[in-house]
């Protein structure tokens, strides 16, 4: 017997039916039925801030789509945003800190707390060693040329403002730049 809806309709089923059904389509289930959690997120690829819905099963993401409640993207995602699931689930993604000591030829796995403390200590040491209070003519500058910051395209205006205030005003960095070109 042919399983297409048109032959079935000619065989006596309602000719007004617009539902094409087959044996296979009757067994299909909604693709997100297995999700046990739905969370919200922000797309990581640019500073627009598109909202996303992240569907997960047993703590692992299985699907990402635009959040229709968002006034920014209204449920849509650009091609980069639509690729967020690949970013989250790639077998090449590192989910831990890798450290290579000076002059070493190998990488070591380190705890995140260790890495954050090391970054803070090196930043403080470098700032203290390179900080200039005044120029030779006596002009106050209170800055360091020993460290700098470069931001990424995912930072929005508010984040850049805070970075400028903290790094420039707090640490005295002069070299603060943002790579906002995508």
From TrEMBL:
Pfam families recorded: Molybdop_Fe4S4
Gene Ontology terms: biological process: anaerobic respiration
GO MF term list: 4 iron, 4 sulfur cluster binding; electron transfer activity; molybdenum ion binding; oxidoreductase activity
Gene3D superfamilies documented for this protein: 3.40.50.740, ADC-like domains
PANTHER family given in the database record: FORMATE DEHYDROGENASE-O MAJOR SUBUNIT, TUNGSTEN-CONTAINING FORMYLMETHANOFURAN DEHYDROGENASE 2 SUBUNIT B
Main location as per UniProt: other
Family that this chain belongs to: Belongs to the prokaryotic molybdopterin-containing oxidoreductase family.
Keyword Iron-sulfur among record annotations: yes
Cofactor: [4Fe-4S] cluster
Cell compartment(s), UniProt: Cell envelope
Domain 4Fe-4S Mo/W bis-MGD-type as annotated: residue spans: 36-92
Keywords: 4Fe-4S, Iron, Iron-sulfur, Metal-binding, Oxidoreductase
Highest rank taxon of the organism: Bacteria
Protein name: Dehydrogenase
SMART domains reported in the protein's UniProt record: Molybdop_Fe4S4
GO terms under cellular component: cell envelope
């Amino acid at each position: 017997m042919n399983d297409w809806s048109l032959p079935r309709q000619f065989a006596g089923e309602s000719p007004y039916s617009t539902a094409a059904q087959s044996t296979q389509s009757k067994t299909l289930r909604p693709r997100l039925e297995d999700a046990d959690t739905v969370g919200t997120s922000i797309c990581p690829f640019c500073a627009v801030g598109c909202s996303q819905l992240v569907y997960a099963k047993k703590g692992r993401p299985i699907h990402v789509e635009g959040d229709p409640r968002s006034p920014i993207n209204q449920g849509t995602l650009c091609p980069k945003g639509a690729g967020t699931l690949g970013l989250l689930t790639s077998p090449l993604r590192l989910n831990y800190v890798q450290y290579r000591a000076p002059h070493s030829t190998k990488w070591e796995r380190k705890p995140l707390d260790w890495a954050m403390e090391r970054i803070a200590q090196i930043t403080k040491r470098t700032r203290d060693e390179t900080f200039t209070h005044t120029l030779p003519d006596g002009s106050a500058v209170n800055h360091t040329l020993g460290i700098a910051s470069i931001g990424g395209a995912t930072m929005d205006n508010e984040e850049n403002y805070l970075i400028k205030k903290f790094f420039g005003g707090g640490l005295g960095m002069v070299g603060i730049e943002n790579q906002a070109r995508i």
